[in-house]
Design brief:
- This protein has a 6-stranded parallel β-sheet, with helices on both faces. The chain has a 5-stranded parallel β-sheet with strand order 15-14-16-17-18, with helices on both faces.
- By secondary structure, it is an alpha/beta fold.
- It is built from 51 helices and 18 strands.
């Protein structure tokens, strides 16, 4: 019931139970997948819970089914904006703004919010004020107007509108106490509650003494975490929790209401008295002694905020982003970080030593005392930054390019809130390393005059990118104390990478080669400069395998990948883990190497470990997302790619991966939009070729061809070559595609997926010998110690044949298993459990077992072979099959109820499958919607049998005219399914395993094939299938809809029914 479903979802949404609302809508859309109203509501639910990428893809589905609309453009802009893809959001807003009317408050709101993201506050306020008076005015328009006003320094209007925050945040309150409504509070007993985060409380506690001076009898209800710190605050700040609990109050208000109470109208009114918080003397002395070993200039670091904050993905960094600070001379680093992010110190101890105090810091009073013993605090926008500013200590605050809090927008590098603070802003979202470089150079300049001359010389080389000659470098190293050696090594490697200057490294090797740090650094230098053998000698003989650090192993593995020395990068990385190097990067590189070898499950497990260990693992998330997408695990892929986008919104590779996901899900228009409007830049050939493929899949052939003009195969990189090939294939320009693939084959395919594409094309055009050979090289078999069969004599040999692809492949190529039996092999066929009963009935001379029963090291077997390697070994031609039909026999009497029902049915019995396996690579293109089949339901003389078993079977509710028989509810394996199918007169199906089963049983089978991405086995253009004599193929043209194809099917089916009637 649609109305009931939408009402139920609305009630759940009102209760903020968005996940339950999405489930209700999802259940309904499984049955009615094209309902636009329910689709829109589900998009809104995704947005309400922050599932922006799911929402964007749900929009893409509606776009595909119903065409684009202003409302869908508005929703897409909102999703892009919240994913941090502001370039795409801005381009779409520019397109839809001229179309908006006074009814479209949501559109004006989205555009206004975009301007807030981009720090264009005047434009934001104009658009949001328009949204206020529209018929559809979102709840948070007023709140966003408050943010924009405060950011511009208009405190009078800003704080007034900012009062709307109380509708969205969970605010503290005391039962029975009236809320302040703006009345005069002089002489009143007032309770002031904390609100929002610890940083907000620290920032606004400055107003408590000012408010007290207005004559209020005031008690501050502070967060528990701040109570120990407040014992040492000014006496006017009364935070006695006993008074909070016991005293009666005239009214209550919240901390950020105080500027209104105090009459603030602009930044000039901000209280200037700093410090207003203080560290406890006894704790300060304790930490002075604790930090005594930290020599030189002391910098405290806090690189991550509250992970539950709504824009934490923008405002938090990783400790690795700050590693360049380790180049500062005479500097010690102390971690002020708490929580999971503090674990990063352990992963970087060899490259960036930072003292980790997490286990020793008990509360904010400790943090304040530590800060009192530091020279500088460097922090992202978090409570530590506010605390340092409130204590009056120098603090450098790192701010994101997008999602910057309004309070930092009043000035550029300074802020009236904290006179001792200096602000450093990202130029591009997610790129904290550039901010750290700016801070590093600023500190070098600031401290240069205070450094001893030898240290100042190194600082000058860092600032200028200098290149000392060998003798100058040697003289400099000789006068430096031994304790400075780690710093010198870091400088030497930095200069070598940045400017190619290796003199410092070579001088270190000449003068300090007995030091472990120098040995490792010089070995890394040799490895990346094509001297891997010499580097290995240093690592293995002088450093010792067990003493290598993570950067040694990573350099060795990378160099091994680039050389022909015979080293295996994966084995090197495994050695690293065995020797205790368990860093996120080691696991990420291991995952990439495993996936490159086709070991997907192991590779994903390694990437999951990298994601677990790293705080902001954008690259690992992207790589895992791509591999999950390739495996058809779309829900997991979406989650990974959303996190990657939020962490690195300007990473073009993330956007390309999301566009590829949209393509896989059958949404080329959405993918095109991402590639065209996502700000990927001109001149990116790989993106241009990918966009060409999307245009071709949209049916826009002329635009697709234009994007390929001037392509030069000779100069293309591997990524460009792969994207170009997919585009030409989508255009079905077979002559060019074949020439291109042959040119590529002569150079050699570096990626197995590219070799597989070549194999598929060869098979599709009938070049079976080279095609099957290429397939076998691209798709390796199961990892086993059983020797692989390469075509040797099988007489009397025990051969394990195992299923390595889907049910359709297993069924189609089952005759090849009989062929190896005919060669004298004693065959054991291992298949998925649900296939055992069916194949065990076929009278095969040998055993049929479950894959789960296989011992992959069983000495019983002489050989093993993947079933899909048999076509190559047996010289199989799809157009000249050697088998006798039917390929399979059905076991009868498994389902007596249905046997009787079918026996008594005189009408034409037609089974249908309208959707395939959703995890299949091109399923979005080959599957249909039952709604497209509606015309068939009107044909008289047919009884319809639903052969669909998965979620798609629920679509039967949407077309009740079919009045389906539903035997599949009783079919828990393929033997029972075959029993049903064998009793039908015909099966009409998309390209599915059941279609193969019907054809193999000798049932008339009509198969619907998609445009552009048709599977190789159906070859080109033909309407028949030599492998299955009872198959008829219906090919969809790119200009057609599935409805059009099924219209042809209906016409032909009417002919079959009529012929059957005339034959009596």
């Amino acid at each position: 019931d649609k109305e009931g479903c939408l009402l139920h979802a609305a009630i759940l949404s009102e209760r903020k139970e968005h996940a339950a609302a999405r489930q209700v809508l999802g259940d309904y859309l499984e049955a009615f997948p094209r309902d636009p109203e329910a689709g829109i509501v589900r998009i809104e639910q995704y947005s309400a819970d922050g599932f922006w990428l799911e929402g964007l893809l749900a929009i893409g589905k509606l776009w595909r089914e119903h065409g684009d609309s202003p409302r869908l453009r508005i929703y897409r802009a909102a999703c892009y904006l919240n994913l941090g893809l502001t370039e795409a959001a801005a381009n779409i807003c520019a397109a839809f703004l001229p179309e908006l009317t006074e009814k479209d408050g949501i559109g004006f709101f989205v555009a206004g919010t975009l301007h807030i993201f981009r720090h264009e506050y005047e434009s934001a306020r104009q658009l949001l004020n328009v949204a206020r008076v529209c018929e559809e005015c979102p709840d948070d328009v007023i709140y966003n107007l408050g943010i924009a006003g405060l950011a511009q320094g208009d405190f009078a209007e800003g704080y007034k509108f900012y009062a709307e925050r109380k509708r969205f945040y969970r605010m503290a309150g005391m039962k029975g106490v009236a809320a302040w409504n703006g009345e005069d509070l002089k002489g009143k007993r007032v309770l002031v509650h904390w609100e929002q985060g610890i940083g907000d409380s620290i920032q606004y506690m400055r107003y408590l003494p000012i408010a007290a001076a207005l004559g209020l009898d005031m008690v501050f209800n502070a967060q528990q975490e701040l109570t120990s710190l407040l014992r040492f605050a000014r006496k006017e700040i009364d935070s006695d929790q006993l008074r909070v609990d016991s005293q009666s109050f005239d009214c209550e208000l919240h901390l950020l209401d105080l500027p209104i109470l105090c009459g603030d109208r602009s930044a000039e009114d901000i209280p200037k008295e700093i410090p207003y918080l203080f560290a406890d003397d006894s704790r300060t002395e304790y930490w002075r002694q604790r930090l005594a070993e930290m020599k030189g200039y002391r910098i405290g670091l806090a690189w991550a905020g509250n992970p539950s904050h709504v824009v934490d993905h923008f405002r938090s960094a990783a400790l690795a982003d700050l590693m360049t600070l380790g180049l500062l001379p005479d500097t010690s680093f102390i971690s002020l970080q708490l929580g999971d992010a503090a674990k990063e110190c352990a992963h970087l101890r060899d490259d960036f030593p930072v003292l980790d105090l997490q286990g020793e810091i008990k509360d904010f009073a400790d943090t304040a005392a530590i800060i009192a013993n530091l020279d500088l605090v460097i922090a992202v926008d978090t409570s530590v930054a506010h605390l340092a500013g409130a204590l009056g200590k120098p603090v450098w605050i790192m701010l994101p390019a997008w999602g910057t809090d309004w309070r930092w927008e009043l000035h550029n590098e300074t802020t009236p809130w904290y006179p001792t603070a200096r602000l450093f802003r990202q130029s591009r979202p997610g790129e904290w390393q550039a901010v750290a470089c700016v801070m590093r150079d600023a500190l070098l300049v600031e401290r240069m005059a205070l450094l001893p001359r030898p240290l100042a010389q190194g600082a000058e080389w860092l600032l200028e990118g200098g290149s000392p000659d060998l003798s100058e470098a040697a003289n400099w190293i000789e006068v430096l104390p031994e304790g400075d050696l780690p710093w010198v090594v870091r400088i030497a490697e930095h200069l070598q990478v940045r400017s190619g200057c290796s003199t410092l490294l070579r001088a270190l090797w000449m003068l300090r080669s007995s030091y472990q740090l120098v040995k490792c650094a010089y070995a890394r230098f040799l490895a990346i400069h094509d001297a891997l053998a010499e580097a290995k000698s240093i690592w293995q003989r002088e450093v010792g395998i067990s003493n290598q650090i993570a950067s040694d192993w990573l350099t060795w593995a990378a160099a091994a990948n680039m050389s022909d020395a015979g080293d295996n990068a994966l084995s090197i990385l495994e050695q690293a883990k065995e020797n205790g190097c368990l860093t996120p990067t080691i696991f990420m590189e291991t995952g990439m190497a495993l996936i490159a070898q086709g070991r997907s499950a192991e590779g994903l497990a390694a990437l999951d470990k990298a994601i677990e260990l790293a705080p902001r693992p954008a690259k690992s998330l992207r790589l895992a997302g791509i591999e999950l997408m390739n495996r058809g695990r779309f829900d997991e892929a979406i989650r990974n790619l959303q996190r990657a986008a939020l962490l690195r919104p300007c990473d073009s590779q993330v956007l390309i991966a999301i566009a590829a996901l949209a393509r896989r899900l059958g949404m080329p228009s959405l993918a095109s939009e991402m590639l065209e409007r996502g700000g990927l830049g001109e001149g990116n050939l790989s993106v241009s070729y990918m966009l060409s493929e999307m245009k071709a899949l949209e049916g826009l052939s002329s635009e697709a061809e234009q994007l390929l003009e001037g392509a030069n195969w000779e100069t293309m990189g591997e990524d460009c070559r792969a994207a170009y090939g997919l585009a030409v294939k989508a255009l079905e320009n077979w002559e060019v595609y074949d020439q291109f693939l042959e040119s590529w084959a002569q150079r050699g395919f570096k990626e197995k997926n590219d070799l597989l594409s070549y194999a598929w094309r060869l098979l599709q055009r009938g070049d079976f010998g080279l095609g099957w050979e290429s397939y076998c090289r691209a798709v390796s078999g199961h990892k086993t110690s059983i020797p692989s069969w390469k075509g040797e004599s099988l007489e009397g040999k025990h051969l394990l044949v195992y299923q390595d692809q889907g049910a359709g492949d297993l069924i189609q190529f089952f005759p090849l298993v009989r062929q190896v039996v005919e060669r004298g092999a004693r065959v054991t066929l291992a298949v998925l459990p649900e296939m055992v009963s069916l194949l065990d009935f076929q009278g095969l001379e040998g055993r049929v077992i479950s894959l789960a029963q296989v011992d992959w090291d069983d000495a019983y077997f002489d050989f093993s072979v993947a079933q899909m390697h048999l076509p190559c070994l047996l010289d199989t031609r799809l157009d000249q099959p050697k088998h006798v039909e039917p390929i399979l026999l059905a076991r009868q009497s498994l389902l007596p109820k249905w046997d009787e029902a079918f026996a008594n049915e005189k009408r034409l019995k037609v089974g249908v499958i309208w959707a395939g396996n959703p995890s299949y690579m091109n399923d979005a293109w080959r599957s249909t919607c039952l709604e497209d089949w509606r015309r068939l339901a009107k044909i008289d003389g047919v009884v319809w049998v639903n052969l669909q078993k998965d979620i798609a079977s629920n679509q039967a509710y949407s077309v009740p005219e079919f009045n389906f028989l539903n035997p599949m509810v009783d079919c828990d394996d393929w033997a029972k399914t075959s029993s049903v199918v064998a009793q039908l007169d015909m099966v009409i199906s998309v390209d599915s395993g059941v279609a193969h089963l019907a054809a193999a049983l000798g049932v008339d089978t009509w198969i619907l094939l998609p445009p552009r991405v048709t599977d190789f086995r159906w070859q080109l253009a033909r309407e028949d299938c030599p492998w299955y004599s009872r198959v008829r193929l219906y090919r969809r043209d790119i200009r057609e809809r599935w409805f059009d194809v099924l219209d042809r099917v209906a016409t032909n089916l009417i002919g079959v029914v009529q012929a059957r009637g005339s034959n009596g």
